Amino acid sequence: MRIGPRYKIARRLGADLFEKTQSPKYVLRAARRGRDKRRPRSRSDFAAQLREKQRARLLYGLSERQFARSVQSAIERKSRRDDEALFQALETRLDNALYRLGIAPSRQAARQFAAHGHFTVNNVRITIPSYKVKAGDVIRLRKGSAGKTPFANLADNLRDRTPPAWLRFDLVKGEGTVLSAPRLKREELPFNIGAILEFYRR
Known about the structure:
CATH class of the largest domain: Mainly Alpha
CATH superfamily of the largest domain: Ribosomal protein S4/S9, N-terminal domain
Number of strands: 5
CATH architecture of the largest domain: Orthogonal Bundle
Radius of gyration: 18 Å
Distance between the termini: 26 Å
Largest sheet: 5 strands, antiparallel
Oligomer: single chain
Number of helices: 9
CATH topology of the largest domain: Ribosomal Protein S4 Delta 41, Chain A, domain 1
């Protein structure tokens, strides 16, 4: 998905959305712009909800249609709370799992790795970034991809990386395992998941 001018988006939605906007260059640029910045206008509830929706959508690198489909599916599910269902739907995407394991430096890179079929899930080659992983799934780098440049120093890159509690990477076997469904902790989210759900319920 083409995201657009990251500096411009980061000024509107927050610098933590992209890797390149967390650099000293961006901080300096933002400081210069802030000298003559006008006082921000107060936001309506709709504007605040829209901002949170855009933050989450861009953070996971999804199109409007993909994100809306995930939210509507979460709202319609009756087996668990809608906020928990949405969080799990976003986190258990294969591209996000690759990013969380530390295999990819960004979600955009992870999306490319998945789409190009570099990884298998339970020994089946998967080329769909939105493929949902579940507890017990084993994610492996294909032998044919192991010698490619992005994965040349994979073991060294992962040595100091700590994945979230629902994932584990075995350096000896060179495989990632999904231990459980990710658990929602609202206070740790970089966006307001409740505001997003309210936006789509309007």
